[in-house]
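Morning. Coffee machine broken again, so started the prediction first thing and wrote up yesterday's gels while waiting. Chain of 348 residues, entered below exactly as on the submission form.
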Amino acid sequence: MSRTPHSVMIADIGYGNCKTILLTQAPEGIVERRWMIPSVVVQTRENLSSLGSSNIRKIQVGGTDIYFGPDILDELGGTQSGMRGAGSHYFESSTYRNLVIANLCESGLAVIDELVLTLPLDYYETAAKELKALRGQYEWQENGIFKTTTVVNVSVQPQALGALIHYRVLNANVGFEKSTRAVLDFGGGTLNFLVAQGYAGKKLRSGHVDYGVRSMWEDMAKEISRQIQASGRVAKFENVALIENAARSGRDYVSTAFGDFEMASLLKQTHSRLVEKVTEAARKMGDVSDILEIVLCGGGAAYIEPAVREVFPVQKIVCLPEPFFANANGFAMLSRKQMAGRELAHAE
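Came back before lunch.
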C-alpha cells in the first residue's frame, strides 16, 4: 500500500460461504465489522420461497435483480445455486463478481481503500492478475436509491497464508521461520492444504482434494437413504440443504418426511470417508516426517479433526479459533497493523 488505508475489506469468498471483515478508521480507533453469507446469489424472485426474511437484500446491478443474505438458503427451499456448483475457476464466474458487489453493498461505504480477496493456492497465481482488475467504481440500486462504492486497490492473497498469520500471532513460538507445518482448510467445496516453512509455502507439496463439507453432507444424505431403504421403504433422500440447515442451527437431528435422523450418528458414518480424504492429502504432501504441526481451519475443521488426528498421530494438531474466519482473521490482523502505521513482525 502506498499510503495508510482508512478502510480495508477482507473477503474470503469460498464455495460454501463468504466470510468478510471490514476495518475502518474512526476517531476512537479502528472499528471492525464482520459478517458471513452463503456464496449464493439469486437473480429470479421465483426461485425464492417467500422472500419474507429481513436477512435477505435485493439490489439491482445493470438492470438485473440480485438477492443475497444470511437466510438465502432457507428461502431457496432446499435448492442450491451459485458457487456451490461452480468448478475450480469459480473466481471467473458472474456469481463471484456479484458476491463482491454484495459485500461492497453490505459495507455501506462509498470508498474501500483496500479490498483483499483470498484464493486457494492452486488458483492464486493464475487468478491474481485478473482479480486485481476488479478495482474501480461499482454501481447499484437498492429501494430505488442509486449507490456507488469505489475500490481504490485490490490485493489477492493465498487463503492459507491468512491462517498462518493468524496462527503466528496467537503462537509466538521461537523458531517459527525454520519449522515446517501444514495448514488444512476444510471448506465448503474442497480440502485445501498448504505445507510451509514459516511463511514460505512449498508449492509442490500443497494443493487440494476434491472433497469438502458439501460432499460430507451428500454422504450423510446417502446414509439417510440407506437407513430409509433398510426399513423397507422405497425412497431416496436428496435434500442436502436440510442437513446443512440442521448443522448450521446446531440441531441434534435432521428432521425429514421419513422421520428424524441423529446428526451424531450420521457424522460417525462419514469418519472413514474423511480419513480416506485426509490420507489422500497426506500422500500428496510427500514425506510428512518434517511437519511439526497441523493447523486446522475452515468451516468443517471440527468435523475433520478426528480424521486428521488419526492420519497424523505424531504431529501436534492446532485448531484455530473461529475456524470459519481463520483466513480472513489473519489478513485482518495484518491490516490492523498497517492501518496503525506498524508492521506485523515476521509477516513480510
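The CA atoms of residues 11 and 167 lie 19 Å apart. Going to sketch it on the whiteboard this afternoon.
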